[in-house]
UniProtKB/TrEMBL annotation:
This is D-xylose 1-dehydrogenase (NADP(+), D-xylono-1,5-lactone-forming). Signal peptide: none annotated. It catalyses: D-xylose + NADP(+) = D-xylono-1,5-lactone + NADPH + H(+). Belongs to the Gfo/Idh/MocA family. It comes from Lipomyces starkeyi NRRL Y-11557. SUPFAM superfamilies: Glyceraldehyde-3-phosphate dehydrogenase-like, C-terminal domain (SSF55347), NAD(P)-binding Rossmann-fold domains (SSF51735). The keyword Thylakoid does not apply. Gene3D superfamilies: Dihydrodipicolinate Reductase, domain 2, NAD(P)-binding Rossmann-like Domain. It holds the Pfam family GFO_IDH_MocA_C3. Its EC number is 1.1.1.179.
Amino acid sequence: MVYTARWGIVATGWISERFFIDLLVDPSTRGVTDVVHTPVAVASRSVAKAEKFIADFGNGVQGVKAYGSYAELFADPNVDIVYVGTPHSSHYEVSLQALKAGKHVLCEKAFTINAAQARHLADYAKSHKLFLMEAVWTRFFPLSLEFQKLLHEEKIIGNIRRVTSDLAHKFLPDVESRLYNPSLGGGALLDVGVYAMTWIQMICYNHPENLQSRPSVINSTILKSPLTGVDESTVITMVWDKPHIISIATCSIAVNSPEDCLVRVQGDLGEIIVPISTANPTEFIVKIYATEDGKEDEVKALKFPIPGPTGLFWEADAVARDVRDGKIVDDIYPAEESVFVMEVFDEVRRQNDFVYPAEIEFVEDE
């Protein structure tokens, strides 16, 4: 029997547009036959904005309600799962409101502003038997699953020794931009740093020998924007004792990433390179080193085209299955891992004296 996931979308910015469009893609085009997605409501700060969003991106879909407040959507009994696509600064507050209304939640990255907020959301969802996940869509790409299988199960490059991961997009400094606005959780760390960390998590945090242990060393450097003080460029170095790996995650909103190598995993026998995007990659390259017995380097590119507009539908499929099965935590990306990331980011900010305004760092009293 096919399960229908009934979605309510909160906020009408760019990422919500992409998610809405992907929900409407026929799942059979990506080989999915057990779940389908039905957007039933969209909430914005006005009914007119929500109606325009549905008209512009709904491809003629009928029956989607437009709400002028988030609270109205949370009260809609036809909404099972809420997708939170608001700015970073309100992820915690909006997700908590949705959970309190009894809704399952998929919240965009970055999950929250700090680890205390992330822990509160995770604990609340668990205690109320509600599903909660951060929308780190990259983790659900078939490419990412095969990448981890080759590294950790087949050990195709032997023992991993060093990992570098980067995501950087150049944006013009602008006090009006959310990326440069501290009150909206601006800066590289919460915007593109999540993606750089995602690959470190897949490779190191989830390494079979690490067993989700924290790194023994976290060192970091932040270059702050002279305009607003947000982190413009950030470097995070971590040491993982059990698998004996050093990792370096870099992110920036001041420059662009190189076009030929965003992730490099170096092992005893070879290396794997993700050449293009750490957010929505479509290929990675495996290089097996030459051997002393005369065998030459072996290089192979593995390609994973995205069968649709963006690729956000894979995470939506996972959420639908989890809710269908009565699960409150996803196996691939549990909320506990989101808490870990926010703990790392808290430490990075502590080391570099980088704080957000108190009004977005708050944690609600029980």
